[in-house]
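Hey L., structure's done. Input below.
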Amino acid sequence: MNWINKVTPPGLKTMLTNKKDTPDDLWVKCPVSGELVYKTDLEENWHVTPAGAHLRISPRTRFRLLFDDERWEPIELPEVPMDPLKFKDDKPYPARLKAAKAKIAAREKKETEGGGAPLLQDDCMVAAYGKIGGVPAVVLVQDFAFMGSSLGMAAGEGLYHCGAHGARPQSGLCRLHRFRRRADAGRHAEPDADAAHDAGHQ
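Output:
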């Protein structure tokens, strides 16, 4: 028997020796103020701290924040070769992918304990279709938690696929492209419009 057993009351000894299943991530430190924020309060405030710091959020949280009534349809992105370059450093690339997918699967399991809309993620890109303010929209999220959001073949294919998906309901990149063309045309027309305006006041 060591000295701590002699001086520690039985009740306190039980508290010190019996480890309970207490989560180790109950608090999150604000990067702005250094304040410890209760994780539940942080989630209820969409991961914005009292000091105004916007913390990183998962694709599911992003979809919940953007889509009307937190409802969406997942978009399955095209499959691509896993390791066409046979890349290897200190760990084979397929092994890195496997570890990243396991990490994302664990997060998804935790986030859907109380239910939730489906989500399809096999790489750093996650896509879904729904409505934002009543307007049909396609949202593509780049997930930093997946290998630092490394851009590979899957990310490029996902971007292209979502552009095509958004073009069908005329709610995605087509509208954005038309808006950009109009904006460019407006910029080119500005000098002539100013000249006409000045001429009218001479």
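The mean pLDDT is 76. The first strand starts at residue 27 and ends at 29.

-- N.
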